[in-house]
Amino acid sequence: MALFLVFWVGQSVTGNRQFNSEQREHNQPELSYSNYLQSDHFWEATAENWESEFFQMFGYVILTALLFQRGSSESKDPDEPEPVDRDPR
Fold first, then answer.
1. What's the angle, vertex CA 26, arms to CA 37 and CA 15, rounded to 5?
2. Taking a C-beta distance cutoff of 8 angstroms, is the pair 15, 42 a contact?
3. Rounded CA gap, 36 and 49, in Å?
4. Which of 8, 61, 75, 88 is least surrounded, with the fewest CB atoms within 10 Å of its CB?
5. 12 contact partners, CB below 8 Å, separation of at least 6
6. pLDDT, tens digit, for every residue of 5-62?
7. CA angle, 72 as apex, 67 and 75 as ends, to 5°?
8. 13 in Cβ contact with 32 (< 8 Å)
9. Which residue, 49, 29, 26, 46, is CA-closest to 37?
10. Given its phi and psi angles, is residue 29 left (phi above 0), alpha (psi -120 to 50 degrees) or beta?
11. Which residues neighbour 61 within 8 Å (Cβ) at sequence distance 6 or greater?
12. Distance between CA atoms of 74 and 67, rounded to whole angstroms?
């Protein structure tokens, strides 16, 4: 959880700098960090980041299930013990 917060703060700081840079290029007012955290730009960037991660995890889970059901050579049958499952003692 601590790493999550560290990276989210890093994303917000970087996003604020990028947003303010774009605002300067267009001669628009910049946002303070606290105002940036309430802005649509910050929440949109956060949602896009999380969306890609959730799609990636969803795809991984679905493909793993499909490959196991189709008999991937790397899949083990959960109903039959295999030599690697034996107690090494």
1. 25
2. yes
3. 17
4. 88
5. 33, 36, 37, 42
6. 999 999 999 999 999 999 999 999 999 999 999 999 999 999 988 888 888 888 888 8
7. 95
8. no
9. 46
10. beta
11. none
12. 9
Measure the CA–CA gap between 89 and 72, rounded to whole angstroms.
Answer: 30
User: Rounded to whole angstroms, how far apart are CA atoms 63 and 51?
Assistant: 18
- R_g of the chain computed on alpha carbons: 23
Q: CA 4 to CA 7: how far, in whole Å?
A: 5
Report the alpha-carbon distance of residue 3 to residue 86 in Å, rounded: 36
Could you tell me the pTM of the whole model? 0.58
Could you tell me where the DSSP H helices lie in 1-89? 2-25, 33-37, 40-69
